[in-house]
Amino acid sequence: MSDPWGETSGRAATRDRSTVPHQPRADGASAHRPPGGRAAARQAARPRGRQSGRRAKPVARRKRLTRIALITVSALILVTAGAGAWLWQHLNGNIKSVAIDDGAGGKEKADAFGRTPLNILVIGSDGRNNAADCKLGGGCGSASSTVGHNADVEMVMHVSADRSNATVMSVPRDTMTQVPACKDPDSSQSTSGYYGQINSALQYGPACQVKTVHELTGITVDHFVMLDFSGVVKMSDAVGGVSVCVSDNVYDTYSHLKLAKGTHTLKGEAALEFVRSRHGFGDGSDLGRTVSQHLFLSAMIRKFKSAGTLANPAKVYSLADAATKALTVDTGLGSVSKLVDLATDLNKVPSKRMTFTTMQTGADPTNANRVVPAAGAKSLFATIANDQSLTAESSKQKASASPSATESVAATVPAAEVAVRVENGTTISGRASVIANALIAKGFSPGTSTGNAPEQSATTKLTYGPGEKAEAQTVASALGLSASHFTQSSESGLTLVIGSDWPSGTTYSSSAAAPADTHAAVSNANASTADESKTCAKVSPYKTVSLNGVAMTPTQAYAAASSKKDSAS
After folding, report:
1. Torsion angle of alpha carbons 447, 451, 457, 463, nearest 10°?
2. Same domain membership, residue 369 and residue 310
């Protein structure tokens, strides 16, 4: 028998006696075997110097086994690498991405260590773009654009610069605001701007929704992710179901959610019914729905962070496949590697430091069915824009991590020896000249000059070259700047960029960047943290649903619809 790699095996070679056939003797005895037969082979195989040596493994056999092992390992490596590459390309191919206008969501402020926070607008679209969505939600639409779609869920997800905490703020869909001028590059749908319901901005593309939220809140929005109806189903199935609790029996005849009092694990359509229910919880409005959505997301986050999910390759792949199929993102997140980086950042934040809130609202004076931001919302917006934590523990840690960030700076070099280039990074004409003249009046070198910054800046920055920190301290002392405004450069010279955080005056006011009132920020905002696993969604005590034309509470509807199967059964 021939070896697959072209050599004759040792066993076959030992038995091959075709050149010396057996010759029987006439008396029936075997003929004498010529030298070199089987006995000689056995004798030659015995190790020298041993009386009862074991048969040695032939050299050819050892070589053959070595080659088999090497080729097998090589094949496994190639197959594994090929599968990995295929999976990577497969996941990348799932992702749908859309460009957003550069600067539409504002510009981030770096902290004292140069780190920047991350703000993502999470959009839940009511669009029914495909057969799955049509079946789940009713009407059908086009998958090619968001024309006619509304952002029925809007959440600003903020991850702090040091990745120690996060805040998720829901903006109720019924909020009235000014929608800016927008044009969707994909559908060419455009508007010159109007006053209307905030969720309608999605009709002009996701970038318009980003721009609208930014202008309402003043919060920088770096990215967006958009999820449709079928996406909720896929994601809940991928994590093996999401555990939620309801405070009483509930039947929302509009979303079709029907659950008995207590805890349930929701998958598929049941999960969608829960997050869509606005008549089953709270006061029966969108405000109650945001709270139940926070409970659902908190439970999903806990499930995602559990070792049973992250340690199981099959679950991780299932989740990644579902997520990439379910999401539409901006081009800044439009690859697997970028989404992995985002997931890594989010996973760094402990559940107890993830705060869920709802923007405080008041009744719209012109329409009782609509709302407008309440006064308290300004504090909530400011905490997110200023990268402040809403959990006390991480706030303390953050304060102790950078004690010098707001300390005053003492002058160490005579002002007359210091020249500064002052650049205007604001939209206010003449700001650089105002500051430069103030410096010269304080005795700084007449070589101090002015100009426009290459781009607008949200924060004031003082850049200094090698060995020039002392000169920078003298400038900072004269203007009331703290060390948090310092940036070292490899090029010599001092450059002061006036940011939008210093719109007036010649002395930097600490009140311009004063911390927001975190107590006011969470007041009436239904704040909760992602580690609160025992909280139940409060079933509405009001007659918010209708069954057979009769108005009743969701609990009454549950009792009246005994023949209808529960969502979680």
Report:
1. -30
2. yes
C-alpha to C-alpha distance for 488 and 494, rounded to whole angstroms: 10
The mean pLDDT value for 393-417 works out to 55
* Structure tokens, 505: 């005056």
Pick from 35-39, 328-332, 430-434: least confident: 35-39
> Average pLDDT for residues 425-429, to the nearest whole number?
87
Most confident region among 15-19, 224-228, 362-366 by mean pLDDT? 362-366
Give the pairing of strands 486-488 and 461-464.
parallel
Residue 445 lies in a domain: yes
Token pair recorded at residue 464: 């200094």
Q: Which tokens belong to 220?
A: 């920088």
DSSP 561: T
**Measuring CA to CA, how many Å separate 564 from each of 127, 261, 557?**
27, 16, 11
88 within domain boundaries:
no
Give the pair of three-digit tokens for residue 327: 């999401």
Tell me the range of 110-119, 276-285, 352-361, 494-503 where mean pLDDT is highest. Answer: 352-361
Q: Can you tell me the distance from the alpha carbon of 283 to that of 172, in angstroms, rounded to the nearest whole number?
A: 13
Q: Classify residue 493: in a domain, yes or no.
A: yes
What domain range includes position 267? 118-390+522-560
385 and 499 assigned to the same domain: no
Dump the DSSP string for 242-307. Answer: EEEEESS-EE-TTT--EE-SEEEEE-HHHHHHHHH-SSSBTTSSHHHHHHHHHHHHHHHHHHHHSH
- Do residues 422 and 439 touch, judged by C-beta distance below 8 A? yes
Question: Domains in the chain: how many in total?
Answer: 2
How distant, in Å, are the alpha carbons of 39, 40, 52, 55, 334 from that of 49? 18, 17, 9, 14, 72
Cβ-contact 327, 95 below 8 angstroms: yes
At residue 398, the pLDDT reads 42
Q: In this structure, are residues 568 and 310 in contact, taking their beta carbons and an 8 Å threshold?
A: no
- Calpha distance 202→130 (Å, rounded): 18
Residue 454 is given by DSSP the state: S
Q: How far apart are CA 168 and CA 119, in angstroms?
A: 9
pLDDT digits over 274-322, tens only? 998 999 999 888 888 999 999 999 998 888 887 666 667 777 777 778 7
Q: Which amino acid, one-letter code, is at 115? A: R
Assigned token pair, 161: 């610069």
Identify which of 494, 478, 498 has the alpha carbon closest to the alpha carbon of residue 419: 494
Predicted pLDDT of residue 405 = 40
As a 3-state breakdown, the chain gives helix, strand, coil percent values, each rounded to 5, of 40, 20, 45
Helix (H, G, I), strand (E, B) or coil at 341: helix
Q: Report the alpha-carbon distance of residue 383 to residue 282 in Å, rounded.
A: 26
> Where residue 423 sits, what CATH number does that domain have?
3.30.70
Question: Cα–Cα distance between 130 and 146 in angstroms, integer?
Answer: 13
Q: By the 8 A CB rule, do 339 and 112 touch?
A: no
Domain with 218 in it: what CATH number?
3.40.630.190
What is the percentage of the chain residues whose pLDDT exceeds 70? 72
- Of 217, 288, 226, residue with least CA distance to 257: 288
Report pLDDT digits (tens) over 170-227: 999 999 999 999 988 877 889 999 999 999 999 998 999 999 999 999 898 989 998 8
Residue 131 token pair: 């057969």
